[in-house]
Amino acid sequence: LLSRCSRVGRGAPRPADSSVPRGNSFALQGGRADFVWRMLSPRLDWMLGCCSCAGYEQHGQGEFQVQLSADRLTQAARRHSLTKGDSFDITFTPRSFGDPGSPRGKGTPRQQDLRNHLDLPQLATYPQPPNSTEHDTEEERKAKLLAMYREFALELHTGMYLTQLTSSRDYSDIHCQLMEDMTTLKLDQSNGRIIEFPLTNVSKVYRILKSDDKWYTPGSALPGAGADSEQIVVVEFMRRKLAFVFKELAVSQRFLICLELLIRRAQQRQGEKGMRAV
After folding, report:
1. Which among 242, 254, 230, 207 is positioned nearest to 97, based on CA atoms?
2. C-alpha–C-alpha distance, residues 187 and 174, integer Å
3. Cα–Cα distance, 149 to 144 (Å, whole number)
4. What value, to the nearest 5°, has the Cα angle with vertex 241 and ends 235 and 244?
5. Which of 11, 129, 167, 237 is the most buried (most CB within 10 A)?
6. Over the stretch 1-57, which tens digit does the pLDDT of each residue have?
7. What is the CA radius of gyration of the chain?
8. Which of left, alpha, beta for 195 (phi over 0: left; psi -120 to 50: alpha)?
9. pTM for this predicted structure
């Protein structure tokens, strides 16, 4: 190809074309050759560059090495993939206490609508949220309680896994989900049975402590350091009890307070429906 281009570039004679005057044939051939050379020159440089043996001569007769350079991450910026949160994992949700700087996102438009239309039930006195301080005013405490209550209701509506203490004192993981009406709790025990518990049928909700297979009321002095103690939140229905196990005190308090608020809301909604029916 190079030899042919060089011959054309030097004006090698070609068969005369009857349609072109002989005086202009060499000029036309030279123009065509110049055009072809301009088209092929960049590609030839690329081909010759790829076929260069400079790398092989540099390393000698040893193995041929190819090194790909990339920007290296600093040790401080490295983060293992196992330590990253999975955005599609709804099994274990971060426990938010309604802080303004909570990393939780805004959610879908449907979730935002559920959160914004969920208000606190009418109570004479409201419980104190775990993240409140003694310097907070009554309005600030109520605002923190409302934020924590909405976040909890949204998490429970999405669904979460909890640890249940059965009547035989066995531990089992169950999936709990608040249904669309926000008044029915659905439990999936992963045995083919899904049970629905109306929150209006709850008679009592309380918290107890379990340590060394013994039961204590909150505030009691536990034997030893109490490091192995468990927080048990009991939800009593007419004919059944549900006991949920927590390791952290703040998480159990959050679950107890927010679930009780959902129960009071469901019962007040049922009472309002009864009044309208009358």
Report:
1. 254
2. 7
3. 8
4. 55
5. 129
6. 444 444 444 544 554 444 445 455 544 455 665 665 666 665 555 555 554 444 444
7. 38
8. beta
9. 0.61
Residue 160 Cα distances to 157, 178, 185, 237, 238, angstroms: 8, 10, 12, 21, 24
Size of the chain in residues? 278
Partnered with residue 171 across adjacent β-strands are 165
Phi-psi region of 213 (alpha: psi -120 to 50; beta: other; left: phi over 0): left
Q: Where would I find the H helices in 73-136?
A: 109-116
Location of structure tokens 């005013």: 137
The C-alpha atoms of residue 5 and residue 33 are separated, in whole angstroms, by 7
Cβ of 14: how many Cβ atoms within 10 Å? 13
**Which secondary structure element, helix H or strand E, spans residue 160, and what is its range?**
strand 160-165
Residue pointed to by tokens 């009890």: 241
